[in-house]
Amino acid sequence: MSSEDVEYKAFLRRRRSIRRYTQEQITNAELSDLMEIASLAASAMNEQAWYFAVIQNEEIIQAMGELSGLDNPYYGAPTLIAAFARQDAIASVIDTTLAVSNMMNTAVADGLGTCFIYCTKDLFNDPRHAELRSTCGVPDGYECIGSIVVGHPAEEVEEPQDRNQDIYSIIR
Ligand SMILES: Cc1cc2nc3c(=O)[nH]c(=O)nc-3n(C[C@H](O)[C@H](O)[C@H](O)COP(=O)(O)O)c2cc1C
After folding, report:
1. Which terminus of the chain has a smaller tally of CB atoms within 10 A, N or C?
2. Each residue's pLDDT tens digit, 1-10
C-alpha cells in the first residue's frame, strides 16, 4: 500500500460534519481545488450533469437561512455551495452527489470543514423564490439537490462511535 493511499483513507476517516465556523473566508485557490476535484467525479455516460452556485455573500446566506424558517441552518459558515442536477440527464442526482462528496473529502485534505445542508433544496426548487435562482445564476433545467457549507472549523469533532458496520453480505 502506498503512503498516498494511507493518507487518502486518513482524510476519509477524519471527515465529520462541522457546525461551527470562524469568520475567515476560504481562499479562491481552495475553492478552485474543491471545484476541480468535484469535476473529476464519476457520472453516468460522463454527462457531468451538475452545476454549483457558490454563495459567499453573507447577506444572501442570512436571507436564505431566514427563508428556510430554521434556526441558523448554515451555521455561520462563510461559503455555501448549492448543488444542482440537470433534469434531462440520465442519473444527475447521483452524478451531483458524487461530485459533492469529492468536494467534502477535498475540504478535509485542505484543512476545511463542511456540512451537508438539505433545506437549500426546498428554497431553490420553490417557484416563489425564482429571484434567488436568478441572483445565483442557476441555469434553467436544473434542480437543487441540497448544499454544503464550507469554512474553517471552529470546533473539534470526535471520531464517530456510532457507525453500523453490518452493511454488506459477501457472495462467493
Ligand atoms: C443528504 C444529507 C442531508 C443532511 N442534511 C443536514 C442538514 O440539513 N443539517 C445538518 O446539520 N446536517 C445535515 N447532514 C449531516 C448529517 O447529519 C451527518 O452527515 C451525519 O449525522 C453523520 O455525521 P458526520 O457527517 O459527522 O459523520 C446531512 C447529511 C446528508 C448526507
Report:
1. C
2. 567 767 889 8
